């Protein structure tokens, strides 16, 4: 009985080693790509007179925009690039109506250019965001989300 068990274990071990060898060192070369920049948090608030955005300048890369409605009525926010509609780099996102004293979140990957954050109508002055060259990679940054 011991000899049969040893043979079975030996065959299983040899099979495991052979299978492990198939997946290692495939010989294909691939280029390691750098990680994108750390996502930047932008905050905006809608008041009865205007929209404020902080920071108003940043580098290209991923952003998360949190918008707070400080008016007495629901507001729908549009975040859009100043590039021609339909171009490859055009960005246009809208939130659902934001109730008074509530927030909404938008996420986007921005390229260099100018962007506008606005609400419907002409009563509230829109905010502008200037986006410069790409921010550095987060390749060697540890403990990021």
List the helices and strands and how they pair.
Layout: H1 2-23, E1 40-46, E2 51-54, E3 57-69, E4 77-81, E5 92-94, E6 103-110, E7 113-119, E8 127-134
Parallel strand pairs: 1-3, 3-8
Antiparallel strand pairs: 1-2, 3-6, 4-5, 4-7, 7-8
Proportion of helical residues = 10-25%
CATH superfamily of the domain at 40-134: Cupredoxins -  blue copper proteins
Major sheet details: 8 strands, mixed
* H/E element order: HEEEEEEEE
Give the number of DSSP strands: 8
Task: Please report which band the strand proportion falls in: under 5%, 5-15%, 15-25%, 25-35%, 35-45% or over 45%.
Answer: 35-45%
CATH architecture of the domain at 40-134: Sandwich
Structural class: alpha+beta
Overall radius of gyration: 26 Å
Short summary of the structure?
It contains one helix and eight strands. The chain has 145 residues and is of the alpha+beta class.
What attributes characterize this protein structure?
145 residues, alpha+beta, single chain, 15% helix, 8-stranded mixed sheet, 1 helix, Immunoglobulin-like, elongated
């Amino acid at each position: 009985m011991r000899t049969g068990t040893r043979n079975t274990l030996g065959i299983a071990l040899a099979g495991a080693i052979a299978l492990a060898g198939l997946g290692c060192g495939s010989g294909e070369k691939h280029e390691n790509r750098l990680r994108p920049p750390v996502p930047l948090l932008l905050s905006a608030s809608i008041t009865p007179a205007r929209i404020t955005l902080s920071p108003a300048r940043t580098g290209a890369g991923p952003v998360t925009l949190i918008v707070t409605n400080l008016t007495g009525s629901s507001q729908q926010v549009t975040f859009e690039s100043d590039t021609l509609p339909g171009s490859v780099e055009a960005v246009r996102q809208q939130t659902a109506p934001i109730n008074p004293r509530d927030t909404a979140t938008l996420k986007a990957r921005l390229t260099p250019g100018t962007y506008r954050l606005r609400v419907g109508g002409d009563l509230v002055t829109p905010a502008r965001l200037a986006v410069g060259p790409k921010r550095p990679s987060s390749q060697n940054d540890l403990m990021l989300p």
